[in-house]
Predict the 3D structure of the following.
Amino acid sequence: MAVTIYDIAKEVNTSAVTVSLALRGSKRVSAATKERIVKTARKLGYQPNPLARGLIGAKTKTFAFVFNYSSADFAHDLSYMELFHVIAQEASKQDYKLFVHSSMTAKPIQEVFSEVIPYGVDGVILGTNINNETDRQALEQTQVPTVLLGRDFYSEKVTGLVYGGYQGARQAVKHLVERGHRRIAFAGKSNIEASIRRLAGYASAIAEAGLQVDEELIIESGWDVEAGEIAGVRLAKLPQPPTAIIAGTDLMAIGVIAGLKEEGLNVPDDVSVIGFDNLHISRFSIPALTTNDMRRDLIAASAVSSLIDMVEKDSEGQRVTIPSDLVVRDSTGKVKPLV
Amino acid sequence: MAVTIYDIAKEVNTSAVTVSLALRGSKRVSAATKERIVKTARKLGYQPNPLARGLIGAKTKTFAFVFNYSSADFAHDLSYMELFHVIAQEASKQDYKLFVHSSMTAKPIQEVFSEVIPYGVDGVILGTNINNETDRQALEQTQVPTVLLGRDFYSEKVTGLVYGGYQGARQAVKHLVERGHRRIAFAGKSNIEASIRRLAGYASAIAEAGLQVDEELIIESGWDVEAGEIAGVRLAKLPQPPTAIIAGTDLMAIGVIAGLKEEGLNVPDDVSVIGFDNLHISRFSIPALTTNDMRRDLIAASAVSSLIDMVEKDSEGQRVTIPSDLVVRDSTGKVKPLV
DNA sequence: CTGAAAGCGCTAACAA
DNA sequence: TTGTTAGCGCTTTCAG
């Protein structure tokens, strides 16, 4: 059996209460007793029992991480998976454990909460779309601190982390404009919040550069490689193809490059391509991908620290924006001069 | 507050014990009472409290999944990450939750157990190397059912899942020999168990084909893209370069292709390349990668079901081998005829 | 500054 | 077939 506070109490000749207090650093215990308790706790290899703590509603040093999507969305998940990974590391650094809730179908947020809270988690990390009023209400009413990944929403207990999609898209357009591009396409329009943000950034920067937003150059599609390939082909076949394409994700960008190639257009010589995410592999694509690094390190640090603030200091939820970095590699170049 | 068995008991006019029994399908409760209990449980939206269950040592429907490595190993992790993902889905399908233990440094198995067991997990999924006697002992003595990913080890409570590395490497060699290759390299030798297995399969198939194992063609290295690139360059620079290369992982294979290209060798025209893993992205590499699909679906299903068997039916640990599939794509071709 | 009592939700053992 | 009692390990009153 594992060591309990009773074992320590017996050893030190005191009560369990005092041990519990001492171990949590209460000032109500004399320095001398505290020291003896801490020392024997260490000696005995005491580990607090999170289940017992959780049962009475105390903190468990546990966050739930929710994968809430249909498996069809796997493509975008490569990015989400990498993010999960970094967050797991970050949480472990801060001495928190992650409890994973992975469902095959996108469930209402209320349901997610009620499946996860009984496990006594101190907080929830969530990446779902908020589609409807019910979800919004669930978030507004929750008592459990929550971090929303990539959603522009916050409430008393909910912090929304917005990555630099808007600003990243603007940066991407600017980068292309500086290199002489004037026909710049956007591939990957959808009703996902991140997509909307990226498209909005694109449109604003296009306008700012004094260019027309050409609907023909905006492709509505999913975010995976296949979708990118189709988009690449379609754009290549246009009577007047774009000289640059901003893709919704890195995977999509890789597909776009392949699609263009099928139609005889080369990257970056004929067309420049920019992605979003900066996946681990993107720097190894051929050509190496110019992309928006979403700064998963910052996102993870921010997610975990916001959550800890809400849990431990009872601070309020807020809206946090994390700017992305444009990483220029080989898939973008100067516009091809008209012959 | 959440609904408890007491609430149900009150509603049905019986005791908590009866409710508990009924809900767990005991035969000691009359069909009539059972039905009433189940019905009102559903009506009230009862969710059993896993913390209370865990506290008394009962089942919690929770497995620990351990990421136990230094972050330097990230490369190989893309494969491990994808595996995690599939296992998480599979577990959720079987109504189990995953509890993630992610540490920055590879810890002794004993320590991992003692950090994870207090959370009341029913079983542990582990992908660590077993380097020493201490780890081996920890596994032999554990009371908690455990599945070891990719390790050839089993004991009373431990099932070892061995993926088709050996057989996959043999298949790869055979595939190449059939296409006329006789100088076949292996890139990615290391002391990781999976690597040893792959190399052994390679060596056996090479010998079987009546070829010599040429030490010059066996490159000792890590498993990431960079290592692959270096290996590719090195092999290309050989006085007599290989006509085919088997790489330890897909990422490495992608690196090898890049390295070869730097030295003016093209895949598959000059050199054929085969990887291991079949990552989600591998089919989109250029050229599309021929690789050993490790069958993550089967691995996940097997991991979860073995664990459940051990947990619920108290069956013994065993050694399970999961064969891989060679997926032939565009990175392998016939040997280039000598001009 | 310290301790005794009670209870979180559940189940195993024992009793009826 | 059903119910009573006790206890898992911890923390929060409340009393010394």
